[in-house]
Amino acid sequence: MAKKVLMIDDDFETIWRFTDALAGRGYAVSKCADAAQAVDVFLREKPDAVLLDVKMPGRSGFEVLRDIRARDPRVCVIMLSAYSEPGTVVEALKLKADNFADKAQGSEGLLLILDKELRTKDLEAQVQRLKSGNGQGLRTIDDIIGESEGIKAVKRQIREYAEYSRDSGLTVFITGESGVGKNVVAEALHMMSDRRDKPFKHLLCSNLQSHLVESELFGYEKGAFTDAYKSKKGLIDAADGGTMFLDEIGVLPTDIQAKLLLLTETGVYFKLGAEGVSKTSEAWFITATNVDIPKAMRDGRFREDLFYRLNQAWIHVPPLRERGDDVILLAEHFVKVESEKTGRSALALPPAYTDSLLTYRWPGNVRQLQSVVRRYVKSQGQDQRIYGSGFESLAGPLETGDGDQNLKSARAKEVEAFERKRIVEALARFGGNRTKAAKWLGISRRSLMYKIKKYGLA
Questions:
Q1: Which residues contact 415 (CB under 8 A, 6 or more apart)?
Q2: Are residues 294 and 424 in the same domain?
Q3: Which 3 state secondary structure label does DSSP give 85?
Q4: Is there a contact between 226 and 214 (Cβ–Cβ < 8 Å)?
Q5: Would you place residue 64 in the very low, low, confident or very high pLDDT band (cuts 50, 70, 90)?
Q6: N or C terminus: which one in the chain shows less Cβ crowding within 10 Å?
Q7: Among residues 233, 214, 3, 237, which one has the least CA distance to residue 116?
Q8: What is the CATH number of the domain that holds 452?
Q9: Residue 88 burial (CB count, 10 A)
Q10: Long-range contacts of 393-399 (CB under 8 A, 24+ apart)
Q11: Is residue 271 part of a domain?
């Protein structure tokens, strides 16, 4: 995804000269010529970098810089001036500008500085992610790949509910089938929130026996149980001020659910072996499950009061089979990731293979797709099988000779012939404009591109 740059300068000639160069380098550029509106534009645009002129009528660039830094201490800010006096440079750096660029250097000089500072910011963010949580880099909202309406809704909810982190009592409940990426949504919520620089702790409840879940969550004192040779801090304590993500919460025993209810309602909990000595937590709770919670409540396996306590905000992650062309976007992403691991150039996905990816129902969701693509890359494109529960190959039509199968094959050919005809008509109608043709056909442009390849219409 292109980095976003906001240019704040009252000189329109400078704005257009530099924004053309920025756009040519692949940056997404927005502009503001009024210093009085600059902070409002900054908050609306949420750029990765700000190019800020020092001298502007009404308010100086230094005043704008102070306001921006008060709202976002991490964003990259580069001050611009036609007069690079030493005192001006020093003042800019004192106010925590990341760098200073002389307009006389021209666009190439500015681009060199911007590229360098953004690379530095990316490295700093990576280090911070490695320090937080469980030692692994956390995914952001940009790592949620997809353009389907369901995924767009998930991203909108992440942006909205990240504000809930300011009040540790407002919890977020994530639902979805196994393998859809609920953990990625939880990480993105944390990284979008004001707690992004605080710890992110993740407990997969289904991986532990019930007594271990309790000790991992709340911690224990020395002698609390047979093997407790020394005291241990729990994840709740470690996540204080940050985010506590409880994954697959639907499997928790009801006695631990009761303790979790007390914790999320009051912030109070007790370490094992320290009964009567309470602790408090300011952690923000995000929970997730693939369990049918209404049925679990009816069966008495999940407390109704806990459900309503945790479900302050709800995000449902749709299964892969309902995400349309997102399957191809994800497959291309995984091809790139797996190819980079092997040091090889990324393979193309042939039309017949992409058709198989689109028509398969993906019971294992995104996790299964990643495994399939990994096999495809490892085999250098030779292994195009997609396995279902019976290990049948779904990469191409089955040659069974059965009458039913022959009828299906004939129908499929009729559908393909009709589809090809409609695509040719659409392209002719709009003079080869694929964006307009796709819209007229009611499909995405990416889907149209694959069908053009499939039918040899390129």
A1: none
A2: no
A3: coil
A4: no
A5: very high
A6: C
A7: 3
A8: 1.10.10.60
A9: 17
A10: 394/356, 394/359, 394/360, 395/352, 395/353, 395/356, 396/352, 396/356
A11: yes
Of the candidates 71, 83, 120, 82, the one whose C-alpha atom is nearest the C-alpha of residue 98 is 120
- Pair type for strands 99-102 and 278-280: unpaired
Q: Do 272 and 210 share a domain, yes or no?
A: yes
- Does residue 403 sit within a domain? no
Same domain, 35 and 147: no
What number is the average pLDDT over the span 429-446?
79
Q: Is residue 334 part of a domain?
A: no
Note whether 253 and 296 are within 8 A (CB). Answer: no
Say what the pLDDT of residue 283 is. 93
From CA 31, how far away is CA 51, in angstroms rounded?
Answer: 10
Phi, psi of 177 (to 5 degrees): -65, 165
pLDDT of residue 219: 87
Token pair in block for residue 226: 């047979």
* Domain shared by 66 and 181, yes or no: no
d(CA 458, CA 453): 6
Q: What is the Cα–Cα distance from 267 to 255, expressed in whole angstroms?
A: 17
Answer whether residue 342 is part of any domain. no
Containing domain of residue 259, as a range? 141-316
Q: What is the CATH number of the domain that holds 294?
A: 3.40.50.300
Statement to judge: residues 280 and 155 lie in one domain: yes
By DSSP bridging, strand 76-81 and strand 99-102 are parallel
Q: 246-297, pLDDT tens digit by residue?
A: 999 998 988 899 999 999 988 898 888 877 778 899 999 999 999 888 888 8
What is the CA 149 to chain-centroid distance, rounded?
Answer: 15
Picking from 131, 164, 199, the residue at the C-terminal end of a domain is 131
Query: What is the domain count for the chain?
Result: 3
CATH code of residue 123: 3.40.50.2300
